[in-house]
């Protein structure tokens, strides 16, 4: 590896060396090769595109569906002095326009985009004029219909090569089966296979899957026994609060987290756990993406994940410091039925999807032939209650409507307030003279921010309320008034999911829904659910089962999971019972009843089982209903 890459790593991230495979992946990218990299959760995927992008002239375009992760990475890069921007749902057209201009003409090094943005002709045309050095495709498994989280907008990614044929792809993911690995490269038109795979083996993780009627009691005992910090995953938001309360009542410092919380509150809860002010965070699967906390000693699932890919990612948040850690599933037999029922709810029929669209348009009072480009805050729970629709099928109906190009729905994300003056400095001075009530606020903005005439800047209303000694509401009122007068653009903060209609409203009876796609996805998801159930019921070793699922065929027993420990205990007990049988029979032949009664270890059933095995192997003999030891052994 060149000194340049090491010096960049040291300068911006403070590391003295790369993790396994990072160097090889970076070298592949620098040499211009399309590359697929599979690194487990916490394996340092972002370094693999950030370092080479900084080594080369131009801008790196990063495509990711995870808007919260996008936001975090942009903030982290900026703190390190690297110019980075993101375009995501909720931004106004003018904001997007200015951001793209800065990528074409400015010194931006990283542009983060959601895959849906590539459907936009304006975005694609601007990318054509950018000096692009790399296309980084995060969560690359989303491009494959065989992947556990298939996202149809990812199918547009291959078109990026039409804009910049010589710019390489770096596709990154933490989990992919052999079929998905092949499909990713095919969908991205790799000229030749080029895959770097770090083993999925995490030999410091002792996987457990325990059938337990009293999940709460077992969970509390596990946490008390293991110590350290951890995550408890549950399926719904209500359970996060209930279980956090149970843990607190049992003397365990805990908090809860889900995507429905305001952004600031989510950040506070996450920070409390990261700094160990809170031992345990109880969360839905909205928690954990992009978080790299090294000292997590346990990850407990109280509900079965819907795929081994999802489970491997979530369980992999334990033990990143290399020390022993415990991913634990606590389940009851009924949980398997719940998982199958959830699968069926995830695939509503076409009629239900069409009706959901009809109600959605009515909800926002969109007339026929109108609505294209409309973006609105959307509360799916309120919508489902209003029309008395089951929530899970509604959420999945929205996904299929998104897949067929009718709308897009962003995840819940705190988008800060943004502000930009729409007149020049000379005109602004006239406003300050003419409207005295705005003078102090305008001066405060100009003193605090640069570039506010050219670009949208992130603005904190509370900060200006403190500076000016006025209520928060007064600052918001003044900012809105400046927009009304067309002196400035003011976009207030939001943390609600954003729904965007991509086409004008049509009669729902003529709404096209790809039922063949729904059928095929149902089959794929069914296979994944069956894989999860097989992991619970049919494993001989938990780690081995996971490795086999991801194509590592020569995996041995891990010797630390619950099944391996039971097997080791059973084998150890067998050896001791065999020794007892030998010692007893060397004293003289015995009837089966007397032999069994002379033993002290194991159950009667277990003792008889071992006697029969020894008899079959001719280690002991049976003559005239008396058992004796074969002295050849």
From TrEMBL:
InterPro entries in alphabetical order: DEAD/DEAH_box_helicase_dom (IPR011545), DNA_helicase_ATP-dep_RecQ (IPR004589), Helicase_ATP-bd (IPR014001), Helicase_C-like (IPR001650), P-loop_NTPase (IPR027417), RecQ_Zn-bd (IPR032284), WH-like_DNA-bd_sf (IPR036388)
Keywords: ATP-binding, DNA-binding, Helicase, Hydrolase, Isomerase, Metal-binding, Nucleotide-binding
SMART domains, A to Z: DEXDc, HELICc
Top-level class of the enzyme under EC nomenclature: isomerase
Segments forming domain Helicase C-terminal: 218-364
Reactions mediated catalytically: Couples ATP hydrolysis with the unwinding of duplex DNA by translocating in the 3'-5' direction
Pfam families: DEAD, Helicase_C, RecQ_Zn_bind
UniProt-listed CDD domains: DEXHc_RecQ (cd17920), SF2_C_RecQ (cd18794)
PROSITE patterns reported for this sequence: HELICASE_ATP_BIND_1, HELICASE_CTER
GO MF terms held by the record: helicase activity
Domain of life: Bacteria
Occurrences of domain Helicase ATP-binding (ranges): 26-194
EC number: 5.6.2.4
Record family assignment: Belongs to the helicase family. RecQ subfamily.
Protein name: ATP-dependent DNA helicase RecQ
């Amino acid at each position: 590896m060149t000194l340049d890459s090491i010096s960049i790593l040291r300068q911006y991230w403070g590391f003295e060396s790369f993790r396994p495979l990072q160097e090889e992946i970076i070298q592949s990218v620098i040499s211009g090769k399309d590359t697929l990299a599979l690194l487990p959760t916490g394996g340092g995927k972002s370094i693999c595109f950030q370092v080479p992008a900084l080594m080369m002239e131009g801008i790196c375009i990063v495509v990711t569906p995870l808007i919260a992760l996008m936001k975090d990475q942009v903030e982290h890069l900026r703190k390190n002095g690297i110019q980075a921007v993101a375009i995501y749902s909720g931004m106004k057209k003018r904001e997007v326009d200015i951001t793209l201009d800065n990528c074409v003409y400015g010194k931006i090094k990283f542009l983060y985009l959601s895959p849906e943005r590539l459907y936009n002709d304006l975005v694609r045309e601007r990318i054509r004029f950018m000096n692009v050095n790399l296309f980084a495709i995060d969560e690359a498994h989303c491009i494959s219909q065989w992947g556990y989280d298939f996202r149809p907008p990812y199918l547009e990614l291959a078109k990026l090569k039409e804009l910049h044929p010589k710019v390489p792809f770096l596709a990154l993911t933490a989990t992919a089966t052999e079929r998905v690995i092949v499909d990713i490269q095919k969908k991205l038109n790799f000229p030749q296979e080029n895959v770097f795979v770090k083993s999925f083996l995490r030999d410091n993780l002792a996987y457990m899957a325990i059938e337990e009627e009293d999940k709460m009691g077992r969970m509390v005992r596990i946490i008390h026994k293991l110590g350290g910090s951890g995550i408890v995953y549950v399926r719904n938001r209500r359970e996060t609060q209930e279980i956090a309360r149970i843990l607190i009542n049992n003397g365990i410092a805990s908090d809860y987290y889900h995507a429905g919380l305001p952004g600031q509150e989510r950040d506070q809860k996450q920070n409390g756990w990261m700094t160990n002010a809170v031992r345990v965070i109880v969360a839905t699967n909205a928690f954990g993406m992009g978080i790299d906390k090294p000292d997590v000693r346990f990850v407990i699932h109280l509900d079965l994940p819907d795929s081994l890919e999802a489970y491997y990612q979530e369980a992999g948040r334990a033990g990143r410091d290399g020390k022993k850690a415990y991913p634990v599933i606590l389940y009851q037999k009924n949980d398997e039925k719940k998982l199958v029922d959830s699968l069926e709810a995830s695939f509503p029929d076409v009629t239900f999807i069409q009706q959901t669209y009809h109600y959605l348009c009515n909800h926002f009072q969109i007339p026929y032939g109108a609505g294209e480009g409309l973006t609105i805050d959307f509360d799916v729970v309120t919508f489902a209650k209003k029309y008395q629709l089951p929530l899970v099928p509604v959420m999945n109906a929205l996904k299929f409507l998104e897949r067929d190009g009718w709308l897009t729905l962003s995840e819940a994300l705190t988008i800060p307030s943004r502000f930009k003056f729409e007149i020049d400095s000379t005109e602004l001075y006239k406003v300050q003279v003419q409207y005295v009530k705005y003078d102090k606020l305008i001066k405060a903005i100009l003193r605090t921010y640069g570039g506010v005439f050219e670009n949208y800047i992130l603005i904190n209303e509370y900060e200006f309320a403190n500076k000016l000694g006025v209520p928060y509401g007064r600052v918001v009122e003044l900012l809105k008034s400046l927009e009304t007068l067309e002196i400035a653009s003011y976009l207030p903060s939001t943390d609600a999911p954003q729904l965007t209609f991509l086409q004008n409203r049509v009669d729902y009876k003529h709404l096209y829904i790809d039922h063949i796609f729904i059928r095929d996805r149902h089959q794929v998801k069914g296979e994944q659910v069956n894989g999860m159930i097989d992991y619970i019921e049919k494993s001989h070793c938990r780690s081995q089962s996971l490795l086999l699922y991801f194509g590592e065929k020569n995996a041995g027993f891990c010797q630390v999971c619950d099944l391996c420990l039971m097997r080791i205990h059973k084998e150890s007990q067998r050896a001791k019972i065999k020794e007892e049988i030998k010692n007893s029979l060397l004293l003289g032949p015995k009837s089966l009843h007397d032999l069994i009664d002379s033993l002290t270890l194991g159950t009667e059933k277990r003792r008889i089982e071992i006697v029969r095995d020894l008899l079959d192997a001719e280690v002991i003999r049976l003559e005239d209903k008396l058992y004796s030891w074969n002295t050849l052994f």
